[in-house]
Amino acid sequence: MSPSVPDSFVTAESISEKVKSGEWSAVEILDKYLSQIEQHESEVHAFNTVLEGEARAAARETDKRVASGETLGPLAGVPIAVKDNLCTKGIRTTASSRILENWKPPYDATVVQKLFSAGATLIGKTNMDEFAMGSSTENSAFGPTRNPHDLSCVPGGSSGGSAAAVAAGFAPISIGSDTGGSIRQPASLCGVVGVKPTYGGVSRYGLLAFASSLDQIGPFANTVRDAAIVHEVIGGHDPKDSTSISEPFPSFLDGLDHGVEGLKIGIISELMGGIEGISPEVIGKTREAASVLSANGALIEEVSIPASLYCLSSYYLIAPAEASSNLSRYDGVRYGLRVQGETLAEMNINTRTNGFGNEVKRRIMLGTYALSAGYYDAYYGKALKVRRLLAQNFDEVYSKFDVLLSPTSPCTAFKLGEKTSDPMTMYVNDVCTIPSNLVGHPAISVPFASGNDGMPIGVQILVPPMQEALMYRVASTLESAKSNEQ
Amino acid sequence: MNNNLKDDWELIVGLEVHVELGTKTKLFCGCVNQFGDEPNTNVCPVCLGLPGSLPVVNEKAVIYAMQLGRALNCSVGRSIFARKNYFYPDMPKDYQITQYDQPTNMDGYLELPSGVKIGIERAHIEEDTGKTVHVGSTGRISGSDYSLVDYNRAGVPLIEIVSYPEIRTIDQAKEYVEELRGVLLALEVSDAKMEEGSIRVDANVSVRIEGEDELRTRCEIKNVNSLRSLGRAIEYEANRQIDLYENSEIPSQETRHWDESDGRTRPGRSKEDAEDYRYFQEPDLVPLNPNTETIEMIDQGLPSFPSERRMQLATLAQMDVSEIALIVERGHDGFAAETINSGAAPQVVIKHLTNNLSDGLGELTPTAFASLIQMEESAELTSTQAKKVLGELVLQGGRPQEVAAQFGLEAVDTDELETLINQLITDYPDEWERFCGGEKKVQGFFVGEVMKSTRGQADGKVINQILNERISD
Amino acid sequence: MTEPISEEEVAHVAHLARLRLSDQELEIFTRQLGAVLEHAKDVEALQLDGIEPMSHPFPLENVTREDEVGEMLEREKVLDQAPAAEDGRFQVPQILGEQP
Ligand SMILES: [Mg+2]
Ligand SMILES: [Zn+2]
Questions:
Q1: Could you tell me the CA-to-CA distances from B73 to B68, B110, B123, B302, C6 in Å, in that order?
Q2: Given pLDDT bands bounded at 50, 70 and 90, which one contains residue A3?
């Protein structure tokens, strides 16, 4: 049986306000979520680790600090679930892989540090596709996560645990990582808000790398406003990440309610039927979203991003190439799993062969091949050029449009096991989300409608780099239009 | 030049020199960059390659690299970091962050004391690996039971300086490394100690028949720990290749390791581990792109280098560069110049500095040194006496006149010597006859006798002079 | 572009990546990688000559840190996570072959 998904959730913002004013206690709030976890986690399996003891201690500490009159941050007493590929000091961080099953990092990721400084309570580490490689969270070494809206369906991936945790009411907010859609696609499938920030907007320090030039950390929330609040907490320059942007971003919260009057919004035609495999139902709902924005005063037009036809090809060479290198360090020498062998090389091979799942192996081999002597130019080199072409396409379109609109996922949540036999079928799930990762632009998925199967459908809003404020503004308009409608 | 190669064969050597930079911290993290600490104490998530950690470039290392590049007459431009992928336990990420197709420094040269210019292809920035000790009966990698890894050195900044294959003799190879050391020491970017591994040399060796234009297959020789073994390794390897060619075999291009204990090179990895490093741009780092002002600032801050200093001293002393190179290498050229400028005879200054002051200058001052040389020149002291006084000045300091007086040193004066020699001619008529007849070795007998009766305080030059005058009388 | 990947190439790539494949896995992976590479051939339709490859999504340059000592880890905590350690060092089985 599905967990009872409440109609409206308490927002992180209101929790924090009421905890700070002393109206609610952080421990009480935490217990509410812990009991939801106790009731439904065995069905959903959103977590690799639930931190009941640590979270209680932290919540008690928060209450003490409130009582002593300290000024607390914007997430005071807010329980938060964090994807299991973000380092948490002394707390198991597995990336849902056997190879790190018992690894306890000696340090916190920058994002985790920032969440703690903002007063958040870490409630658990969420399940994911192993090393974030997948679109359904079925590639976890510790078993799949299920969609809280229908337990026979996947939650999407790779941040499926984080999406499901918010959807199931296990936490009001959560953190995921997005390399090719791994926040937005599960957000769409689970009916929550999910954001991929501008590349360099959120520090990657402490994020177990999948594809370094594509990875970004971002929030899940029930509301656009909550997502923006969390995003402001985790964002900002970090000297520990060389790719971190040092210029300040405009506030994501100011102007959230300013509407879309006069904005020029383009619908990406390639993702509205130009590319095969995107369901007519999803396309239809995206058009509805466009009409809503139009009704609110935006100018809507179809635009073309021709290179988006080749994004999948480019992405599935670049991401595996970087991953093949990033995952070399799991060799059984310094941390994590070791499976013994007579010689060093045998030990390396035994460890990696036993420690990695099939999808990870597949991508490591694909990436190794794409980079290897004789194939670099034909594969990796060409993929980097497609990426440039795509960036040029976006630049051109953004010279005439403020915002772009597209579906987030080509379909609603599918059944467990439905797409596991053929990797290519699974890869197509990322077709709408990949372009933003390749060019490093921000994008958000906002829950907008339900399909005939009753499962959620999200709509994706894309903006130029560092223009998140605009992105949240459009998303907020869509969100309120939807709730007015209901 | 003699390379101990068989006739008709020419030696071709290119050197790859890895230099550890003397920064306070490592290349990509704030860990202390220090030799000889307890194992695995200078480590952090970054240099241990822990999951999630990210590198940030040490600004000082970049400046040092650019300074070295300019000192080696390289063009310094936009550069990018790359990953070199291969599995090895002393490399925490199982890839090395290095520079590949766009290094910081390109196309320079190093001028050797002999005047030869050796082209530099590139000088790039990269990180060092950790250190592995092999436990077992041999202590070497082969035959060890297991190995232990220390990551203190992992991530220490290195510059790899790659020469073109323009070195033609073993002496040139050694000279190149020595000269490079001189440049590094002048820049103060490295302690440049070969014995502690802060300079490590790999040699690309090939041979060809003299007169050929094409280069033949080369082998890269690693694990060379001193200048002496560099010479031995090159010689061994060249002869190994020549032997193969002369047996109608062709050497295969491979990495070989020098084994100091038995004086041979051996192949490193097995063939099946064909090297395919899958280089690609390091996505965790952004390009370095110094502007022209930065380069100008670096140029202005450069110290003077051995080649310039040799030229300066040679000009001042009016001697050949090769005669004063050693003094520059020891860093005594400033001292030499000061002494010469206070009026001392350059030849004598250079002679003493070369032969008698190799252990350092101690308490000696240029003024004292100059007066000593004047005393020697005016025959107040013999050269033997001067050497003795010099030794004392190095130990104790002071003025040479006082030291000479303390020791009771005073050259026997010429009149006294003439009297002594007249007496000897009378005492040994047969020997004198033979000397006058041209038997040169008898000269030594007379000099010896004079020294005996003056207890060595006579000036040999003067004795010889008087003896020769007497013949012509 | 080249034809889809062969079993020999997959075996070689697995070797480079320090993975062991059973005969059956070799066959399956070869087919699956072949399908992805086949799909990747679609970029051949694009005119890519003269286009600058794009490695970084955001054009930053000259990001450095000062040469200042930062926080280091306690050795016990580091070795605590190691599969095997001895004498303050990480222990590994016998190494065949020198560092390349
Ligand atoms: Mg190198
Ligand atoms: Zn470190």
A1: 9, 8, 11, 12, 48
A2: very low
Q: Please tell me which residue, B252 or B137, carries the higher pLDDT value.
A: B252
Residue A356's domain spans which residues? 310-380
pLDDT, one tens digit per residue, over A359-382 is 999 999 999 999 998 889 889 999
The one-letter amino acid at B98: T
Q: What is the pLDDT of residues A82-91, one digit of tens each?
A: 999 999 999 9
Q: Answer whether C45 touches B (CB < 8 Å).
A: no
Task: Give me the number of domains chain A comprises.
Answer: 2
3-state secondary structure B240-265: HHHHHHHCCCCCCCCEEEEECCCCEE
| Residues B164 and B132 grouped into a single domain | yes
Which percentage of chain C shows pLDDT scores above 70?
Answer: 94
Cα dihedral B400, B401, B407, B410 in deg (nearest 10): 120
Which residues of A are part of the catalytic machinery? 83, 158, 182
Please, is B136 exposed, middle or buried when counting C-beta atoms within 10 Å of its C-beta (0-12, 13-18, 19+)?
middle
Residues of chain A with Cβ-Cβ distance to B87 below 8 Å are 328, 331, 345, 348
- For residues B151 and B279, membership in a common domain is answered with yes
Are B435 and B330 contained in the same domain? no
Find, among A319, A324, A318, A343, the residue nearest to A333 by Cα: A343
Contact B393, B357 (CB under 8 A): no
d(CA A227, CA A355): 35
Mind listing the domains of chain C with CATH numbers?
Answer: 7-44 (1.10.20.60)
Ligand that comes closest to the CA of residue C99: 1
Q: What angle do CA B206, B263, B10 make, to 5 degrees?
A: 25
State whether residue A57 sits within 8 Å of chain C by CB: no
pTM summary value: 0.89
SS3 A457: strand
Establish if C16 touches chain A: CB-CB under 8 angstroms. yes
Q: How far is the CA of B32 from the centre of ligand 1 (A)?
A: 22
Give chain B's end-to-end CA distance (angstroms, integer).
48
Same domain, A115 and A24: yes
Cβ contact C58–A200 (<8 Å): yes
Where in the sequence is the domain holding B32, given as residue range(s)? 9-300
In a domain, A285, yes or no: no
Residues in chain B with CB shorter than 8 Å from the CB of A348 are: 87
Q: What is the ipTM of this complex?
A: 0.96
The reply to whether residue C78 touches residue B48, judged by beta carbons under 8 angstroms, is yes
> Which among B51, B149, B283 has the least Cβ separation from residue A213?
B283
Cα(A203) to centroid of ligand 2, in Å? 19
Ligand 2 mean position, distance from CA A51 (Å): 30
Tens of pLDDT, residues A164-177: 999 999 999 999 99
For residue A114, being part of any structural domain is answered with yes
What is the pLDDT confidence band of residue B138, given thresholds at 50, 70 and 90?
A: low
Strands A456-462 and B157-163: unpaired
Query: Could you tell me if B187 and B334 lie in one domain?
Result: no
Cβ separation of B52 and A329 shorter than 8 Å?
A: no
* End-to-end Cα spacing for chain A: 26
Q: What is the mean pLDDT of chain B?
A: 91
With H, G, I as helix, E, B as strand and everything else as coil, classify residue A473: helix
Give the closest ligand to the alpha carbon of residue B32.
2
**A158 cis-preceded (ω within 30 degrees of 0):** yes
Distance from the A359 Cα atom to the nearest Cα atom in chain C, whole angstroms: 10
Q: Subunits that touch chain B (at least 3 Cβ pairs < 8 angstroms)?
A: A, C
Q: Which ligand is nearest to the CA of B43?
A: 2
- The stretch A246-269 carries a mean pLDDT of 96
Instruction: Give CA–CA dist A185/B327, Å, rounded.
Output: 72
Q: Looking at the complex, does the CB of residue C48 fall below 8 Å from at least one CB of chain A?
A: yes
Average of per-residue pLDDT across A450-474: 97
